[in-house]
Amino acid sequence: MTLLNRILDLAQGDPQADRVVPKRGHSVRLTLFTSAAMAFLAVFALALSLAAGRLADRWSEALARSSTIRISAPLSEMEAQTWAVLGVLEQTPGVSSARALTDEEQRALLEPWFGPDLPLEDLPIPRLVEVIETAEGYDAEGLRQRLAAEAPGAVLDDHTRWRRPLVRAAGRLRALGWVSLALILASTAAMITLAAQSALASNVRVIRVLRLVGARDVYIARAFVRRFTMRALTGAAIGAAAGMIAIAFLPRAADEGAFLTGLGFAGWHWLWPLAVPPLAAFTAFWATRAAAFRTLRTLP
Amino acid sequence: MINLAEVAYGYGSTTLLSDVNLRLVPGSFHFLTGPSGSGKTTFLKLCYADLTASAGQVSLFGQDTASMTRNEIADARQRMGVVHQDCEFLDHLPLSENIALPLTVAGRAGQAEEDNLDELMGWVGLSARRDALPPELSGGERQRAALARAVITDPEVLLADEPTGNVDWDMSLRLLQLLVELNRMGKTILVATHDLALIRAAKAQVSARVLRIAQGQLQLAGADL
After folding, report:
1. What are phi and psi of A118, to 5 degrees?
2. Which residues of chain A are within 8 Å of residue B89 when distances are taken between CB atoms?
C-alpha cells in the first residue's frame, strides 16, 4: 500500500474499528493541548524565521548597494575636498550616483544624540557623501587610492564591516527559527509518543480481547493511530489559527521600525502556517504508529 | 486441523502437561474433562496459540504455532471460535457489538452478518440485552454472549472452556444443542467441562470422544461416563 493510499485510508477511517478502543483518559486532552501549544509556537518560530530571512535579504541588498565617504578636513578645505571627491566619483566606473548630504540631512542624522538646535556650522563635523553603486559595483581599493591622492581627508566606508555581521546575524536568526521548528516537531513527536504509550498501556485488556478474537496488530494499531492523528490535526489547527491571529494583531511600524515590529508574515508567506496542522498530523501518525507497534510487540 | 504431538507444558520446575498427543480432525466432537487445576484451560490455550508448548509441536491448520507470526496466529484465530473461561469483553461496547467483534476485526460487517447476529442473540436468549454493557450482565449472560461471539463467524473449529459453567440446566441443554448443530454442519468442537451430565446428554445426540487430563497426561475417558 502506498503512502498516499495509507493517508486516504486513514482519513476515510473505519468508524467500527475506531470504537473498539474506549474514548477516555487524559491522553485525549494531553494530545489536543500539546498539539495546539506546539502549533502556536511553531507559527511564531516560522514568523521569526521568515522575518529574519526578509531582514537578511533587505540588509544584504540595501547595504550592498550603498556606501559612504566621510570627509574630515579643516572648514576652509571642506568645500574643495568635497568637490574633489564628487569629481573622482563621477569618473569612477560602477558608481551610479553620488551626492553630498546637505546640512539639514546631517543635522537630522545627529539630532537623536545632540538635539534639534545643533549649530552644525560651528562644529568640526565631517561632510558625508552618499554613493550608490551600479549592479556591477566599483573597485573599492582603487577608489580608496584615488581618494587618498585627490582628497586626503576622505575615507571610504563601503559598509562591508557593518553589513557582514548584520547579514550573518540575520542568517543565524533564520537558522535558529528553523532549528526551533525542528525541535518543536521533535517535542510534539515525543509527547504524542508518550501519550500513545500511556493509552496503549491503559488498554492492555482491550488489546488482549481484540487479539483473542483474531485482530491483527495493524488493526489494533490503526485504531490508536487514527485517533491520535486526528487529535493532533485538530489541536494543531486550533493552535495555528490562534498563532496566526496573534501575529496578525502584532503592532506594525514603518520600514525603519525596529526588527520586532517587523515580525510576522508578508504576502504569500501567510500560507506557511497552514502547513503546520498537516505537519503535526504527519508527525503524530508516525510517532503513534511506531509507539503502537513497539508496545504491541512487547505484549504477550 | 489441530494437531498436538509429544506436547509438554510447564513453568519453572512444574510440569503441567506432558507427552500429550491429539489430532482434532474436521467434524469431530471432543469433550475434555478432568479435575479443577488439571490443565484443561492450559490445554485449550495451547490449541489456540495463546501459550507456546515447552516441548513437542502444536500445529494449527497445518502450521507449527511455535514458528507462526502474530499475523498468522491472528488469521488462524479468525478461523476459530473460542469461548474463554473468564469471558472477557470490551466493557465500553454494547453487547451486540461485542458479539459481532470477530466480524468487525475481520472486516466482515454486512447485512447478512447483521441478520445472523439477530438470530444468534435470539438463540442464546439475549435479544433483550442487545444494548446492555458487559458489566451489566450476569455470569450466565456473559457465558451465553461468549458462546455467541465464538460462533458468529461460522468458525471451522470451536474451542470452549466451561461454556455452561454459570448457566442453569435448561440453558446448558440449549447451548449444547447449538454445539451439536454446529458439529452436524461439519464444525470441529472441543469442549472443556467438568459437567458429566452435559457430556452424557451430548453423547446421546452425537458421536463424541471424551478425553480426560490426569496427572498431566491426556487419556481417553473410561466407560464410567
Report:
1. -75, 125
2. 209
